[in-house]
Amino acid sequence: MKNDLKHRTKVFAHNVIKLVAQLPNDYLSNHIKKQLIRCTTSVAANYRATCIAQSKPSFISKISIVIEEIDESHFWLEFIKDENLLPIESCKSLLNEADELTRIFISSRKTANLNLKN
């Protein structure tokens, strides 16, 4: 599962980078490009860090960062859609992937919190 999610988060970042390359070259789009590239690559990099966490509290802290970054990724993808910067179909699968990853990471944090208490 760990390696699957490592790969999945990395593919997500690559796919978002391909999407932002399609954005127009204007002030708003350039801002969104930078933000999306930053947060989606952060999801992948920080998830890798959770995989080598040395304790449950460390894992919980690191996975919380991943959750914040995937949520921000979702925000910027929605923003592209809301501003009609790209066709909705261009963003749909990435929005779905962001939703799925968010649910996985939140569930993982809940489980880790429960294990920490027991």
Account of the 3D structure:
The chain is elongated and about 50 Å long. It has helices at residues 2-20, 27-51, 56-82, 88-117. The mean pLDDT is 96. α1 (2-20) packs antiparallel against α4 and α3 (56-82) runs antiparallel to α4. The longest helix has 30 residues, at 88-117. It starts with a helix and ends with a helix. The protein has a single domain, classed as de novo design (two linked rop proteins) (Up-down Bundle), CATH 1.20.1440. It is mostly helical.
Features:
single chain; 118 residues; mainly alpha
Summarize the SSE layout with pairings.
Blueprint: H1 2-20, H2 27-51, H3 56-82, H4 88-117
Helix pairs in contact: 1-2, 1-4, 2-3, 3-4
Quick synopsis:
With 118 residues, this protein is mainly alpha-helical.
Named at the architecture level, the CATH assignment is: Up-down Bundle
- Domain module count: 1
Distance between the termini: 23 Å
Radius of gyration: 15 Å
Summed up, the helix count is 4
Order of helices and strands: HHHH
Give the overall form.
elongated
Q: What is the CATH C level class, in words?
A: Mainly Alpha
**Fraction of residues in β-strands:** under 5%
Q: pLDDT average, as an integer?
A: 96
Per the CATH scheme, the topology name is de novo design (two linked rop proteins)
Quick one: how many beta strands?
A: 0
Oligomer: single chain
State the CATH superfamily name.
23S rRNA-intervening sequence
